[in-house]
Amino acid sequence: MTRLNIVLLLAVLASALYLVRTSYEARRLFDAAESERAREVQLQTEFERLEVTKRAQATPLRVEKIARERLRMFNTTAALTHYVGLNGAASDAAPAVASAATGAAR
Prior knowledge:
The model is unreliable at 96-102 (pLDDT under 50). It contains three helices and no strands. It is mostly helical and 106 residues long.
């Protein structure tokens, strides 16, 4: 009878220790999940802010302004068009062809 009581006592103690361990692990995992949810909200807010900034940066007027100022780009016209031949030099007949093409289009 005494041996049975000792075995049952050890079983109860082992069960209690396992219960404490699993409760601690559950609390730890819950805290980790809550911190990850907070991080998710923070990242979502940052993503939305970056999307708004991206849309603001990509407006056609801003892109055109940067192209003109930084890249020194400009709208092309027939007067500014240069045709390059096979030898790499600009063709002398090209302005006449460009002028004739713009005149024919009118």
